[in-house]
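Customer escalation, tier 2.

The customer says the design service returned an amino acid string that "doesn't look like it belongs to this structure." They asked us to rerun it and document both sides in this ticket. The original structure tokens are below, unchanged.
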């Protein structure tokens, strides 16, 4: 190769690298821009209506939407349209509120099936491969793996937050959770099994000030149909969650009040 030809080749290579970098950089920036940022402090809105109809429309068939998000609690015997299996119905019929107000039970964590719809705030920390949900309620922390991994084997440990994997569908975060330890569904005697499967969809409002979600679950061991909740929170910058610090002696106070009413 002549000296002139070599010079032209080196000159072409020098220009080729910046051009490639310029074509890939905007693509990466566009991808980052297209992914919503859920990072921040989120507080439950007192009014959970109206529902986001687009999210509701994506729920699978044979699903009933429980209208108990936030400060609402179903009375005993009411399960929002869920059809209980006989064994689950019998257990719920035996349940009494005072069963939970013992030293051994009053600080027992619920699973995310019940806890995420409650009136407690949480923080979200978001990266491309991992999203962290840090809840104030019982200091629960969820790791949402976004790196394409699957769930662990069925005999892997079950916890109250389970094992969560997620992916983006347009501007919606879709999270599937398994390996959830058995706990309450409606806080009135209806418990789910440790084989429950939960799928959540999260999306921001157009102004980015609200986070909307559906929480769908199936548990053939406990219910005949499927259940779901609609939940929405508002973004409150500059706030942080506090430690929950459940004190089991609260049960003793509850029992003493009950004994006083009985004596009267």
């Amino acid at each position: 190769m002549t000296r002139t030809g070599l010079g032209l080749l080196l000159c072409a290579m020098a220009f080729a690298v910046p051009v490639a970098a310029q074509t890939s950089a905007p693509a990466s920036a566009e991808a980052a821009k297209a992914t919503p940022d859920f990072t921040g402090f989120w507080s439950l809105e007192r009014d959970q209506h109206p529902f986001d109809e687009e999210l509701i429309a994506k729920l699978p068939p044979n699903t009933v939407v429980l209208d108990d998000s936030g400060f609402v609690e179903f009375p005993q015997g009411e399960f929002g349209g869920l059809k209980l299996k006989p064994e689950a119905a019998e257990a719920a019929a035996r349940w009494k509120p005072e069963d939970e107000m013992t030293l051994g039970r009053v600080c027992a964590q619920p699973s995310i099936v019940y806890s995420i719809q409650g009136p407690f705030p949480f923080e979200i920390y978001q990266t491309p491969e991992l999203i962290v949900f840090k809840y104030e309620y019982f200091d629960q922390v969820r790791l949402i793996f976004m790196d394409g991994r699957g769930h662990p084997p069925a005999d892997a440990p079950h916890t109250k937050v389970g094992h969560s994997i997620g992916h983006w569908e347009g501007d919606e975060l879709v999270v599937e959770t398994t390996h959830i330890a058995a706990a309450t569904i409606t806080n009135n005697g209806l418990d789910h099994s440790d084989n429950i499967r939960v799928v959540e969809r999260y999306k921001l409002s157009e102004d980015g000030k609200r986070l909307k979600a559906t929480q769908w679950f199936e548990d053939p061991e406990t219910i005949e149909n499927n259940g779901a909740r609609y939940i929405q929170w508002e973004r409150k910058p500059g706030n942080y969650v506090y430690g929950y610090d459940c004190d089991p002696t609260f049960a003793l106070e509850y029992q003493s009040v009950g004994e006083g009413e009985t004596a009267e």
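Tier 2 assessment: The sequence is consistent with the input. The domain at 36-260 is CATH 2.40.128.20 (Lipocalin). The first helix runs from residue 3 to 34. Sent an explanation to the customer and offered a walkthrough call.
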